[in-house]
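4.2 Preliminary Data

To establish feasibility before requesting continued support, the project team ran the inverse folding procedure on a target of 287 residues. The structure was first converted into the token representation described in Section 3, and no sequence information of any kind was made available to the design step. The complete token record follows.
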């Protein structure tokens, strides 16, 4: 049996940190670590850096756009091809760890953002994540782990962040339900729900108007805790006490009140949307 770990959105941010920590602390559990994203150069650079410290090439970079149904089908084909190769040697593929980290967000009122970009966000944040779980499950066994990157924004509807918050609410609820369904099979599912973390996220969400995350904490700490909790079978991971308090008290706040309050009091800086002004700007940031 060939056991692999899979990390999507691995070219930067949380995905890159997941890759580094798994290769450093959990490498003995996997024969290969597949890192998936669209940015070939960044993936290859990360793979070369990590592989140079190992006795064999544990990191396998996979350039793939997993967005939507077509992306998931391409990923499914990769799994089938790999499994068929192993059958020749009377072996099979086992996915020991799947980290669905690929995703992006957009700042601003819904009416002022591009419908095309919002739909692309739903395709990546929700459709792709759902499909990745679905096509990976046949290759999972007792002890396998799924980590889905949600957000602190999943706990309450947010004005100026409507579609992103809704997409992450889906990720959180789906992950907890999936954990309940897979418990008897011994497969663990954890939703990572970060607040402000120092990644490229804000720069992409604001179309460059917010280059850094205000008050963002290092991704290293967030990922360390997430991996510990996921392997222990915890259903969610919120690193900071402040995040856990926010998540807890959100259940006592009216959903409309929360959305209205954040819309009026939490404006998020952004430049005009790329699609709205007919310019092509890459959104190749994966949390």
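Position-by-position output of the design step:
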């Amino acid at each position: 049996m060939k056991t692999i770990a899979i990390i999507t959105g691995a070219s930067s941010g949380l995905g890159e940190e997941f890759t580094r920590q798994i290769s450093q602390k959990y490498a003995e559990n996997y024969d290969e670590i597949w890192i998936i994203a669209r940015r070939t150069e960044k993936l290859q650079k990360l793979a070369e850096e990590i592989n140079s410290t190992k006795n064999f090439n544990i990191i396998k970079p996979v350039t793939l756009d997993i967005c939507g149904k077509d992306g998931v089908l391409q990923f499914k084909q990769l799994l089938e091809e790999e499994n068929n190769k192993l059958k020749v040697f009377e072996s099979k593929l086992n996915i020991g760890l799947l980290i669905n980290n690929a995703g992006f967000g957009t700042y601003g009122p819904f009416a002022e953002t591009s419908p095309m970009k919002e739909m692309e966000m739903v395709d990546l944040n929700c459709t792709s994540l759902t499909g990745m779980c679905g096509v990976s499950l046949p290759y999972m066994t007792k002890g396998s782990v799924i980590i889905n990157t949600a957000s602190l924004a999943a706990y309450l509807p947010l004005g100026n962040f409507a579609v992103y918050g809704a997409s992450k609410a889906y990720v959180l609820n789906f992950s907890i339900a999936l954990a309940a369904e897979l418990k008897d099979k011994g497969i663990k599912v954890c939703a990572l729900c970060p607040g402000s973390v120092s990644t490229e996220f804000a720069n992409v969400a604001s179309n460059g108007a917010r280059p850094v995350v205000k008050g963002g904490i290092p991704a290293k700490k967030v990922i360390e805790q997430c991996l510990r909790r996921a392997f222990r079978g915890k259903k969610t991971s919120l690193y900071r006490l402040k995040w856990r308090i926010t998540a807890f008290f959100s259940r006592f706040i009216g959903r409309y009140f929360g959305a209205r309050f954040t819309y009026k009091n939490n404006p998020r800086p952004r430049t005009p949307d790329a699609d709205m002004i007919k310019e092509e700007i890459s959104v190749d940031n994966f949390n």
